Amino acid sequence: MPFVSIRSRLIFLAVLLLAILAIASALLIGQLMRASDDLAEEAKLVSIVKNANSASKHFGDLKYWITDSAKTLFVRSQQNADAAKVRLDVDLKAIAPVDPAGVAAIGGEVDTLSGLARKAAEAYSSDDSAGGNALMQEAQSHILNVDQEIEQIVDRSEQHALARRDASMRQAKTAVNASVAGGIITLVVALSLTALIVRSINALERSMTAITRGELDAPIPSPGRDEIGAMASTLGMLRDSLIERDRLEHERRRAEAEIRVARDAAETALRELNAAQANLIQAEKMASLGQLTAGIAHEIKNPLNFVNNFAALSTELLDELKQTTRPALVALDSDGRAEAEEVIATLTGNLQKIIEHGRRADNIVKSMLEHSRGVTGDRREVDLNALVDEALNLAYHGARAQDQSFNITLERDFDGKLGRMQLAPQEMTRVFLNLFGNGFYAAAKRARENGDASFRPTLRVATRDFGEAVEVRVRDNGTGIAGEIRDKLFQPFFTTKPTGEGTGLGLSISYEIVTQQHGGTIDVDSEVGRFTEFTVRLPRQGNSRGAESRE
After folding, report:
1. pLDDT digits 0-9 by tens, 399-434
2. Which residue in 25, 123, 249, 375 has its CB near the most CB atoms, within 10 A?
3. Cβ distance 459 to 391 under 8 Å?
C-alpha cells in the first residue's frame, strides 16, 4: 500500500472496525434481548413459586381454622378461617395466569372442603358426633388433594424456572463468546492495519526524534506524494527553522550579555555619581559654612582681644588701686572698710570671670578659624598601625596630664598585614585624637555616674585590611549616644558635652578630613549605657578632591 494515503488507510480501518463492532453489537444485543426475556420469564416463575409456597401456607391456616371452627363452633375460629380463605384466594389469583387448571382444581377442592366443614359443624352442634367425624374424615381427603395440587404447581414452576435459567445461561455464554470473537477479530485487524501505518512512518519518526534531541544534521526521508512525504517536507522546514532559531538565540544571548555589561556599568556609574553628588553637596555646605565661620571669627576676634586685654589691664589697675587706697581703707571704720574690700573682691572676681570666659571664647574663635581653613597637610606613605598607636598614646598621656586620677584600659587589635598607605598623617592624627578623646570622656563619665567599683573603663582600637580599603574601629564602653541625636554628631558646633567642655567642632573637622581629603567614610554605632563605636574606612587610593578644591 505504498501509494495509498494515510487518510485513506485510516478511513478504511475506521469503517472496517465500525462494521465489525456493529455486527458484534447487533449479535450481542439480540442475545441480550433474548436473555432478558428469559430472565423476565424466570423471574415470573420464581414469583409463581413464591405465591405457591404462600398459598400452601395460607391453605394450612385455612384447614386448621376450618377444622377448629367445625369442632369448637367458635366465632373467632370461623373469622380466622374466612381471613385465611381470602389470602389463599389472592395467592391463587396470582398463580392462575400460569396454571389455570391447577388453580381451578384447588378452588373446587377448597369449596368442597368448606361445605363439608359447615355440615360437620351442624352435625356437631346437633350432638351428632359420629356424623361430624365422618364428614371431617371425608374433608381430610380433599385437604390431601389440595396439598398435592399445590406441590405439583410448585414443582412445575420450579422446573420451568430452572429450564429458563439454563436457557438464559446458554444464551449469555453464546453472547459472551460472540463478543470475545468479535473483539479478537477487531483487535487483529486493527493491529495489522496499524502495523502497516507505523511501518510507513517509522523512518520519519526516527528523524523527528533525532531532531528533537538537537541532532539537526539527521537525515530526513525523501518527500513523496502521500502524507509521509508531506510530513517529511514539513520536518525539513522545521529543521531549517530550528537552525535559524538557534542562530537567533545565540545572537540574543550575546546581545543580552552586552546589555547586562552596559547596565552594570551604568548602575556603577550611577552609584558613583550619587556618591560624588552627596560628597559635593557636603563639600559645598562645609565650604559655605567655612566662609561664614571665617567671617564671624574675624569679626569677633578684634573685640574679643579688646575685652581680654582690657580685662587683664583692669585686673592690674585694680591691684594697684588696692595698694594705693590701703592707707585710706585703714582710716575707715570697720563697716566702711569691709564694704570697700567686698566691692574690690567682687570686681576682682568679675574680672577673673571675664578673663576666663574670654579665653574660652578665644579658643572657640581659634577653632572656628581652624575649621574655616579646612583640612591641610601633605599626603605621604605612612604605617597606619604606627600612626594610630602613636595617636592613642598621645591622647592617653594628654588626658592623664589634665587629670591625674584618670585611668582607662587600652585594648589594641592591629592587623599585622595592614602595611603602609598614602594619607595626610597630621590630619589623620587630629581625627584619631578627637575620637580617642571622646571615648576617654564617655568612659570616664560612665565610671563617675555608675558608682560601681567593678566597672572598668575600656577603649578598644582595631584595624583591618580589606584589600582596596582599610578600616579603623574605636569602641568605648562609655555612656553611649541616643539615637535621635546620632545623625547630628558631625554637624559643626553640635556637642553632647556640657557648656565649657567642648566646642562641637572636633567631629565636624574629623568628618571633613576623612570624607573630603581622603575619600573615606566615618560611621557611628552606639547603645545608650553600653558602648559607642566609630568606624573610619579609608580607600588605599585616597581622594584628592579636597586638595584640588583648596587650590
Report:
1. 888 888 889 999 999 999 888 998 988 889 989 998
2. 375
3. no
